[in-house]
Amino acid sequence: MRTFTYDRASDVAAAVAGFAPGTMYLGGGTNLVDLMRLGVAEPERLVDVSKLPLRDVEADGEGLLIGSAVRNADLAAHPLVRERYPMLARAVLTGASGQVRNMATVGGNLLQRTRCSYFQDVTKACNKRSPGSGCPAIEGDHRNLAIFGHSTPQQAPQCVATHPSDMAVALAALDAQVRVAGPEGERVIAMPGLHRLPGTEPDRDTVLRPGELITAVRLPAPPPGASAYRKVRERASFAFALVSVAAALDVSDYGAVQGVRLALGGVAHAPWRARRAEEALLGQQADDDQFRRAADAELAHARPLPGNRYKVALARNLIVAVLRELMPR
Amino acid sequence: MAEITIRLNGTDVPLSVDPRTSLLDLLRERLGLTGTKKGCDHGQCGACTVLIDGRRANACLALAVAQDGADVTTVEGLTSAGHPPDGENEALHPLQAAFIERDAFQCGYCTPGQLCSAAGMLAERGPSAVTADLTADPALVPEEIRERMSGNLCRCGAYVNIVAAIGDVAGSGARAGDGVRATERAGAGSGRGAP
Amino acid sequence: MNRIEGRDKVTGRARYAAEYPADGVAYAFPVQSAIARGLIEFIDATAALDMPGVLAVLSSDDPPELSKDAEPELALFQTRRVAYYGQAVAAVVAESLETARAAARRVRIGYLPESHDVRLRPDHPGLYTPEKVNPAYPTVTEHGDLPGGLAGAAVSIDVTYTTPAEHNNPIEPHAAMAVWADDGVTIYDSTQGATSDRDTIAATLGLPRDKVRVIARHVGGGFGCKGTTRPNAILAAIAARAVARPVKVVLTRQQMFPMTGYRTPTIQRLRLGADAEGRLTALAHDVAEQTSTIVEFAEQTATPTRIMYAAPALRTSHQVVRLDVPTPAWMRAPGECPGMFALESAMDELAVAAGIDPVELRVINDPRTEPHSGLPFSSRNLVGCLREGARRFGWDRRDPSPGIRRDGRWLTGTGVASATYPAYRAASQASATKEDGGFVVRIAAADIGTGARTALTEIAAEALDAPAARVRLELGDSSLPRASVAGGSMGTASWGSAIVKACEDLLKNGSEGSGDTTEDVAGNAGFARHAFGAHFAEVRVDLGTGEVRVPRMLGVFAAGRIIDPTLARSQFIGGITMGLGMALMEETVIDAGTGDFLNHDLAQYHVAACADVQDIDAIWLDEEDPHLNPMGSKGIGEIGIVGSAAAIANAVYHATGRRIRDLPITPAKLLS
Fold it and tell me: For a Cys-Cys bond, which of B174, C171, C194, C544 suits B140, CB 3.0-4.6 Å?
C-alpha cells in the first residue's frame, strides 16, 4: 500500500472543497481498502465520509431518501425499505457477508469495482487499470464476465468486465436517482445511468466527475405489484452473482401486465435494465409464454463470449422463473 | 503517523498509527492481541471478525486510523466482559462454552472470528437472504443461522457443530435480534490450557 | 472428552506460528515472478532499499547461503531460472509489515520470458510414466486379460473423468518466525510435523539438526499443504540471518496459491466390464496428471482401484507431464480422493447401464482378498457400511429412474459411493515420565485440528491405567521425541503406538519410559490394511438455473476402534464437507495466457460456506482388527473426502439424468 494521509470530513461542502487529484472518498472501506491492499487503488489522500450526516433513511413524499453513508445492513433492515421496497432489501441481503454489510455504505456499494480476476491483479495487463495494456479476459477466463454492453470488436481498448453490486441492480429497476455534490455543484444522476458501459474508456466505471461525492439516493414511489430479487451463484451464500434478476410485476384483474420492471446483474459493466423485455411485456397476458418471449427479446441482443454462453440460458430461465413467482395467486 | 484513541475491550488506548495499518494488524502486531486471526486480509474469510461499536466487522478491512473513537471488542474481550481476565479460571462467554461443548472447532483458527461474528449476529434484527417474510424478525432456525454465519469460512468443516452451538446459545424460540439468552456464564474448570 | 486445548482456542490464547512475541521482530515479504517460465535478467532493488524502514532485499543477485542439496522449491533465490508464475524470486525485509509489502512492489525485475506450457491434456506429448507413484507404489499394475474381459462383458463402459487443480486453503496462512541465537535457529512454523520440518530446514540451511528447533504447538489447518516444509520457513530463517533480528513471514492468501502446493488436476479414463449378474469382468483405471519442471510429484490416483473390487482383469496406470506450474503436493487423501471420484462415478455408470442397484453392484463385487496383491484384508466391512447407510437413508424405497422426482423448481435424487483409505503406520518415538503428581508424555506430534492432543492423552491414560486428568501431553516441538508427520491419516496410529510403548515401559521401570516403534512398523507385511466407508447423498437440482443444493449426506465408516467419538465425528464430517466443496465449487483456474493460478483468493476460489452445509452426519460400525497397532485403530482424517464428491455427482445424475464428468458441477455446466 502506498502511504497516504487520512482526513475525516466534517461536512459535505468541506469534503468536496478539499478534493484534489489523488484524493479518494472512504466509506466503509470494504472495497477501497481491499483495492488499496492489492495495489489497484493508490490514493494519496483518503477523506473519510462515513461519519457525514448522510446516515438517514426517511420517507420523502411517496418516495424514500437514503443517505449515502447508510450502512448496507441498516438499509436492508429498515422498516420502510422492507415494507415498501422489498426488492431492494432482498438485493442488499444477498450481497457479501453480514460483516461486510455492516461496514459497507450505500455510496461505496454503488462505486465498488469489478471483481474480474485480471483487474484485481496488478501483475497482469488490464485495459481498465491501464488503458491500452490489453484485456487478457477475452482470450482467457471470462466465465464470470459480461454478455451485454461490453466492448464491440470495433471499440478499443476492450473490456468485458461486469459490475458486481446487487444493490445497484435493484436501484436500477426502481428508477433510483443518485444525488451528487461536486466542485461544480450538485446534480442528480438517474439510474441505471450512474454506471457506464466501457465504450472506448474502460477505465471510467461511472459518469462521476473528479471530486463528486454521492450524498444520497432517492427512490420514487415503489412500482405497483409484487417484486423480487433473485441471485444465482456457485455457492449458497457469500458469492457474487453469476446472474441476478430484480423484478417487479403488476398484473391487472384481467391478467394483463400493466407494469413491469426488470434489471439484470452479473451480465454487464453496469446494472442492465432489460427495457426490451419490459416493452415486450407491457400490455401482454402475464403467462409463461409471454415471459419467455420477453426474455428472448432482451437476450437476442446478448453477445456472449465463448466461455459465458451459459449466462444467456441462465438469464432467460431466471427472468421467466422470477416473473412466474410474481404472478398474483 | 496519525494519533488515535480506540476503546479496546473496555479500555481507552491512545496510539500513533501508520495510516496503512489495518485494525487487524494493529491488534496482532502492535498490541499483542493475537486472538483475532488473519486468514485472507481481504474480507473474504471472516477469521478477523471483531465487534466495532457493537457490530460485527472484518478488522482486516478497517483501517486503524479510521477507528478513532471506536469501541472495539475482540475475542479476548468476550471472555473478560464483566470479569477480569484470570487465566484458566475466568468465566467463559456462553458462546465460548457452547463451542467447547459442541466441539464446534477443530484447528481453532477460524474460531475467534466465529465467536465474535456469532455474538454480533445474535443481536442483529431483521431478515436475511433466506427469510420468507421480510417484515418480521424471523425465528433463528438453523437455516437462518447458516446464512447469517456464511461470512465465516471454516475449512475444517466444523459448520454442523458451529450451527448447533450457536443454536444452543440462542435458545429455542429465539428470534433475530434477541441476543444471547443465557446470562449465566459458564463455570471455570472445564478443560485445561495447553502449553 | 472435550478437546484439551479448547479453552485456549475459544479465548484466543492458543498461539499459532505468527503469534509469538519477539523483541525487534522484522518482517519479510516475498516478491513473486510475473512470468511462468524463463530467466531473470535483472533485479533492481534501489527503489525498495530507498524506502525508510527497509532493512534488506534478498535475491539471486546475492544468493543466500543454502545447502546445495536443498530441494528445488526451498532453494530460495539460488537460480535465475523461473519455474512458475508467482514463484518467490526475491524478498524485502523491513521494520513493519506495511513497509515490507509496499517495498516489495517497488522491486523491479526484468525477465527473459520463454513460452510456457501449463495445460494438462490427455494427448500431451510430454506425458511419461514415472518410476513410481507416491509414496512408493508401482506406477502400473496389470493382471488378467483386459481386452478379453472388456470384449466379453455383457455391459461395458469407457468413460473419462476430469478433476481440476484444487487448493488446500487452510484458514491459517503459512507463517513462520525465525530467531537465531548462538549458532542455531528456532523457527515457529505452521507445520504438520515438527520433526520432519526441522530435518528439512536443517538440511536446507546446511546445519546440523541439533542447531534447529521447530515449534508448532497449534496449527491452523493443513490438509497436506503443511506436510512438507514451505518457503515461509526458509525465508524467515535466511532473512533473520541477514538482518540479525527475528523475522516473521506470513504468506498472503494470494501467495499461498503458487507457493504452498495444490492437488494436481487429473484426467482419468475408466473402463469397466461386467457379466449379466453384475460381476466385474474387467476394470481399468488410467490416469494423466501434472507435475512441475523442477520436482516430480506423482499422485497415486489409480491406487484405490487396486484394492476396491474383485475383477479377473485389473489394470491401473499413471502418467505425468512436466509443465511450467508449481509443484503439486499433498491435499487431503492424495490419490484416493481424485481416484475414487472417478472409480465410484464409473461404478455408478456401470450400475445404470447394467440395470443393477448401485449398492448391490458394490456388494456383488466385494473381494475376499485384496484384488491386486492377493493379500488378506486385516479387516474390511464395506458391505456393512453400504447396508447400514442404505437402511438409514431410505435406499430401499429408491426408484433408480433418473429425472422423475420434482419438488417445485427442484429435481431431487440420491447417490451412493464407496470410500476407502489405507491404514498406515510410521515410526515414531515417545517418552513418558512421572512428574507433577501425574504423568507427562512427550512426542513431537502435531495437532492440526484432528484432536490428536486429546486422543493421544486418552490413549496414554488408558495405557497407564490412569485418569486422563492426570496425564499431560506435550507435542508440537522438534526437541521432543521424533514423530512422523500428521498426514496419511496415520498420526494417531503412529504416535499412539509409540506412546503405548513408552507408557508400558514406564510402568515396568517405575518413573520413566520410552518407546520407539521403528522395528514394530517395519514388520508390517502380510495384510492389506484399509478403512472403508460408504457415502450417501441427497441433492436438489434446478435445471433452469443450474443450482445444486445438498440437503442431506451420511457417511458410514468401518475404521477399526474409534478412539474418541466426538473427535471422530468431527473429522468425518469435516472431510465430507470438503468433498461437498470438491463436487460443487472448488476449482483452481490455470490461466493459459499468463500461466498463473488466476483465482487466487477466497472470494474467487470457493470453499463450502456455512449455508452450503445442511444435514451432514457420520456414523461408524464397530470393527475389531488385531493386526493394526496397540489401539486397534485406523486413520480417519481423510476418508471423509474420499467418495463423497462421487456420491453427490451420482445423486445429481439420479436427480436430472445428466452425468457431469468434470468437476466441479457448476451451474454453467448444467446449463450447457
Answer: B174
The tens digit of pLDDT for each residue in C50-80 reads 999 999 999 999 999 999 999 999 999 999 9
CATH 3.90.190.20 fits B2-78, yes or no: no
Residue B88 confidence (pLDDT): 61
A:B CB pairs within 8 Å: 111
For residue C142, pLDDT over 90 is answered with: yes
Which positions in chain B touch C218 (Cβ < 8 Å)?
107-108
Query: Which residue from B111, B130, B160 is facing C9, i.e. has the nearest CB?
Result: B111
Q: Residue A5 above 70 pLDDT? A: yes
Q: Which class would CATH give C429-522?
A: alpha beta
Q: Does B153 touch chain C (CB under 8 A)?
A: yes
Chain A residues within an 8 Å CB radius of B166: none
Q: What is the DSSP string of A218-233?
A: EE-SPPSSEEEEEEE-
Q: What is the mean pLDDT of residues C238-252?
A: 98
Which of A245-249, B85-89, C206-210, C629-633 is least confident? B85-89
Residues of C with a known catalytic role:
638
**What is the Cα A316 distance to its own chain's centre?**
20
Taking the C-alpha atoms of residue A44 and residue A6, their distance in angstroms, rounded to an integer, is 9
Instruction: Write out the H or E segment, with its range, that includes residue A247.
Output: strand A243-251
**Residues composing chain C:** 672
**pLDDT at position C74:** 98
The CATH fold of domain A226-325? Enolase-like; domain 1 (3.30.390)
Q: What's the pLDDT band for B188 if we cut at 50, 70, 90?
A: very low
ipTM score of the complex? Answer: 0.98
Determine contact, residues B110/B45, Cβ cutoff 8 Å: yes
Q: Which of C543, C542, C553, C518 is nearest to C430 (CA)?
A: C518
CB contacts under 8 A, B 41-70 vs C, are: 41-42, 44-45, 47
Phi, psi of C575 (to 5 degrees): -65, -40
Q: Which of A39, A140, A242 is nearest residue C593 as measured by Cβ atoms?
A: A140
Q: Strand runs (DSSP E) across B49-174, as ranges?
A: 49-52, 55-58, 71-73
Residue B86, pLDDT score: 54
For domain B92-185, which CATH number applies: 1.10.490.160, 3.40.50.620, 1.10.150.120, 3.40.50.2300? 1.10.150.120
Q: Which chains touch B (3 or more CB pairs under 8 A)?
A: A, C
Instruction: Return the pLDDT at B190.
Output: 35
Confidence category of residue B85, pLDDT binned at 50, 70, 90: low
Closest C-alpha among A304, B120, A280, A4 to residue A319: A280
Residues B157, C5: C-beta atoms closer than 8 Å: no
In chain C, where the domains are located? 375-423+526-672, 429-522
Find the length of chain B: 195
Q: Please tell me the predicted confidence (pLDDT) of residue B87.
A: 58
pLDDT at B192 over 80: no
Q: Which 8-state DSSP code applies to residue C313?
A: S
Angle in degrees, 0-180, between the axes of helices A166-173 and A86-93, rounded to the nearest 10: 170
Q: What is the DSSP letter of C84?
A: S
- Cβ proximity of B152 and B141 under 8 Å: no
> Do strands A45-48 and A23-26 pair parallel, antiparallel, or not at all (unpaired)?
parallel
Domain C375-423+526-672 top-level CATH class: alpha beta
Scanning every residue of chain C, which has its alpha carbon at the shortest distance from the alpha carbon of B159? C610
User: Which of A31, A85, A99 to mutate to test binding with chain B, by most B CBs within 10 Å of its CB?
Assistant: A99
Where are chain B's structural domains?
2-78, 92-185
